Amino acid sequence: MAKINILDFNAVPDATTLSTQAIQRAIDSAAAGDTVLIPAGRFLTGALFLKSEMTLELAKDAVLLGSERLEDYPLIDSRVAGIDMVWPAALLNLNQCCNVRVCGSGTLDGQGAVWWHKFWGADENGGMLADYSRRGLRWVVDYDCQRPRNLVVYQSENIRLEGFTSRDSGFWNLHICYSNQVSVQGLQVINGAGPSTDGIDIDSSQRVRVEGCTVSCNDDNICVKSGRGAEAQQLARTARDIIIHDCTLLNGSGITLGSETSGGIENVIIEHNRFSGTGVGFRIKSARNRGGWIKNIIVRHLTLEDVSYPFMLQLNWFPQYSYSEQPADTEQPAHWRKLASGVEGAAGLTHVENIHISHICSRLTQPAAFSRAFFIEGAAEHPIAQLHFSDVRLQAQEFGKIAGVRDLRFERVTVDAPAATQSENDEYAR
Q1: 58 belongs to a structural domain
Q2: Is 324 exposed, middle or buried (0-12, 13-18, 19+ CB in 10 A)?
Q3: Contacts from 6-11 at CB under 8 Å and sequence distance 24+?
Q4: DSSP-assigned letters across all residues of 222-275
Q5: Is residue 10 part of a domain?
Q6: Poorest-pLDDT segment among 70-84, 263-277, 337-351
Q7: What CATH number does the domain containing 145 carry?
Q8: Are 246 and 273 in contact (CB under 8 A)?
Q9: Fewest CB within 10 angstroms: 32, 141, 180, 268, which?
Q10: What is the end-to-end Cα distance of the chain in Å, rounded?
Q11: Helices (H), strands (E): how many in the chain?
């Protein structure tokens, strides 16, 4: 069980010399049980690919800097926001791996600003987003605008991610997809104001535990997903047996189930987490063409401070993104056709049931902080069922809205909301 230093393979810690090949040679040289060490220094690199039965250690003050050139991330089979498609590899890739550990107190730095500007321009009002929106293509721009992720675990088993920092990813920070038995412990996710910079995404995976992480980003802090549309429904790869425990959520949109629900989400425990200045606390989002289900969810022992929407459950979320404005066409790229092929009719309604929320305290520490206690919008044709709140204390400006729910129960729920509910607050940016 040797420790292999990437400096011995001529990696250069100067933040400007591309060291992809040197680092990959070090990884490829590792035998079962070996550790590849990234020592202190700033190493510029493109996509790296780990292999089974190894450890990658990021030492204190070690930084893997993501290249700002798209050609340094080869196109590979992947899943992107619920669609199986070809996409640039991540900075760090664990593809079809078994028994891998990534650890240490160092950092993955995606240098994401170049990718954020590509998506929405330097002023957040331009780039591909503005161009596609003008052409009625808001629903596809996220998939056409190729942006590397910091770390992807794909079709892998028995993976441990421990201690390191992920910052400024071009797209999602950590994506765990089609994988089993994954532990994410003690990570720091620090992302700037980039679009779709989710913290930790758990996608059609089983037996995943996220514990003791701190996540600050510009979208969902931690998100559970299971695919989007007809193809994902046919694959039936359910996200299940997931625990999110003892995490701290800062900037971002909270702990979310969805919006990709086509394969089903079940048996999730969200407990003993802290939120501060977060846009949302606990969130469910889906659309009328997703299908699938969300069931057997326990949310308990959460502390929320200055959270705008402690509970946001929306089953017709973000129509401009969720629904294509044109039918599937054989002349379109394959991923466009997949996006246009939603789950049709009544089968497209996501079944949400057996959600138990207990021992929650949400308070405002800043006088100017906005908060709406409840924002719940189920589907009239298939309401959210068995939604139970108990031992909940909420401090907010306005009570909010609850609709599309069957068997809603409140037990020992206290709400302080002195202001009238304002329809202008029905919009949430993400």
Answers
A1: no
A2: buried
A3: 6/36, 6/37, 6/38, 6/39, 6/43, 7/39, 11/43
A4: EEEE---SHHHHHHT--EEEEEEES-EE-SS--EEEES--TT-EEEEEEEEEEE
A5: no
A6: 337-351
A7: 2.160.20.10
A8: yes
A9: 32
A10: 46
A11: 7, 34
Nearest 5°: the CA angle 283, 286, 290 is 155
Residue 111 within any structural domain of the chain: no
3-state secondary structure of 8: helix
Overall number of domains in the chain:
1
DSSP conformational letter for 262:
T
The pLDDT of residue 330? 67
β-bridge pairing 157-162 and 280-285 = unpaired
DSSP bridge pairs for 300: 271, 358
| Domain contains 13 | no
What are 387-420's pLDDT values in tens digits?
999 999 999 999 999 999 999 999 999 999 999 9
Distances (CA, A) of 145 to 70, 129, 324: 11, 9, 17
Express each pLDDT in 123-175 by its tens digit: 999 999 999 999 999 999 999 999 999 999 999 999 999 999 999 999 999 99
pLDDT, residue 419, reads 94
What φ, ψ does residue 312 adopt, rounded to 5°? -130, 110
Sign of the CA dihedral 21, 22, 26, 27?
Answer: negative
For the segment 162-189, the average pLDDT, to the nearest whole number, is 98
- Residue 275: which domain range? 70-103+128-426
| pLDDT attached to residue 262 | 98
